[in-house]
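Service request form, structural biology core

Requester: graduate student, group of Dr. S.
Request type: structure prediction, single chain
Budget code: on file
Notes: please return the result as structure tokens.

Sequence provided:
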Amino acid sequence: MMTKLPEDLIIRNSKPSDHQRIISVMKDWWEGRDLTWMLPKLFLVHFCNTSFIIEKGDSLTAFLIGFLSQSKINEGYIHLVGVHPNYRGMGIGAFLYHRFFDICKEFNRNMVRSCTSPVNKGSIEFHGKIGFNILKGNAEVDGVQVSVDYNHPGDTKVLFEKKI
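Core staff response, request fulfilled:
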């Protein structure tokens, strides 16, 4: 696991002005899938203390949008993570997750949850590699447990949890 970013990459907390930068790269980073609807600006307004941006100069390299649950006082939730395709496989995603885990621990959270689409095989594999378990769902897709109609009809998700 990468414990320190290369010197040419800078990590900082997100800010509302990052919204347009993030949504402008999402289609490219997700191979044409339009997930911009998943990131209303309010996430960057209200969860900037638990969300991060990684940059190389003026270029966006990666981001993690996460928050501490107000309803489940022992949980943190990672809502959305993106790593520029040219920087994948270097440990940057894991670095961001571990930074979020540290914040969760600081606030006495011992469970982190996240989810992804079953079509995102890379995300499913990534979560498994860093120790997330897939939760039992109400169906199975390609041998993976999923929850059908998770956010709305037709929305199928793979749900993850990790004790930290």
